[in-house]
Amino acid sequence: MLQVKVNRPGFAGDPDVGEIGVMSKRKKYSAGVRERAVRMALEQEGTYRSEWATIESIAKNTGCASETLRNWVRWAERDAVKRPGPASEELARINKLERKVQELRRAN
Questions:
Q1: 3-class DSSP state for residue 61?
Q2: Alpha-carbon gap, residue 79 to 67, rounded angstroms
Q3: How many structural domains comprise the chain?
Q4: What is the pLDDT of residues 87-98, one digit of tens each?
Q5: Are 37 and 22 in contact (CB under 8 A)?
Q6: What predicted TM-score, i.e. pTM, was given to this entire model?
Q7: Whole-number mean pLDDT of the chain?
Q8: Which residues contact 96 (CB under 8 A, 6 or more apart)?
Q9: Is 10 left (phi over 0), alpha (psi -120 to 50) or beta?
């Protein structure tokens, strides 16, 4: 467990991090929640004043953090080739190859 000491005002009653507390574990979301939230964010594009306003609104409705939803949307855009960068499958392949290279280096 990670012990965190926070000496700033406003954190004393926070359920995740206390004055001297333990950070909460990462929350897991089902694939259905993730897909639904991403679909809603992409469908609502242009409805709000900015992409961030869209993401904040949908995140609030689905119960996930805004930054989490923003990351999910970015991945969905990369997978749909709407945004530059490696798609999920490519990244998984790259990571697998990098692990293999590390194994080979350790063996030699």
A1: helix
A2: 18
A3: 1
A4: 888 989 999 999
A5: no
A6: 0.61
A7: 82
A8: none
A9: left
Q: For residue 5, give the amino acid letter.
A: K
Q: Is 22 helix (H, G, I), strand (E, B) or coil?
A: strand
**Burial of residue 26, with CB atoms counted within 10 A of its CB: 0-12 exposed, 13-18 middle, 19 or more buried:** exposed
CATH number for the domain spanning 48: value is 1.10.10.10
Residue 66 has pLDDT above 90, yes or no: yes
Give the model confidence (pLDDT) of 15-29 as tens digits: 544 444 555 567 788
Range of the domain at 64: 29-107
